[in-house]
Design brief:
Shape: flat
Number of domains: 1
CATH class: Mainly Alpha
Distance between the termini: 24 Å
Number of strands: 0
Length: 118
């Protein structure tokens, strides 16, 4: 999938602390093609590695969630990815955690990061 917009190195700093707004339009333009690859790989299976939940699903969830936060409509054209996200979030322990006071949706990177810190 490639680096997220704020992970792309630039001169004078790292991608989490240096604004990358000039790269955002190009990244978003190519995002549907990248999401399509995830969608095609998942297909009609419930989980990325087959019929059973594995650690791979948590890695895929994390990537898809970051993109969903960065561009809320990024999964709209991919019902199977949206269903996958709902399946992960519906897991008993994950659901309980996300509803608890311990769950912090932000900051994603750090409080100093330009993107994902609020």
């Amino acid at each position: 999938l490639g680096p997220a917009p704020d992970e792309i190195p630039s001169e004078g700093g790292d991608g989490c602390s240096v604004p990358q707004e000039k790269l955002k339009p190009g990244y978003l333009e190519g995002l549907p093609d990248k999401m399509k690859l995830y969608s095609q790989f998942l297909g009609t299976r419930p989980w990325f590695a087959g019929e059973k939940l594995t650690y791979v699903d948590f890695l895929a969830y994390d990537i898809l969630d970051l993109h969903r936060i960065f561009e809320p409509n990024s999964l709209e054209a991919f019902p199977n990815l949206k269903e996958f996200m709902a399946r992960v979030e519906g897991l008993k322990k994950i659901s309980a955690y996300m509803k608890s006071s311990r769950f912090l949706p932000h900051p994603i990177y750090s409080k100093l990061a330009v993107w994902g810190s609020k």
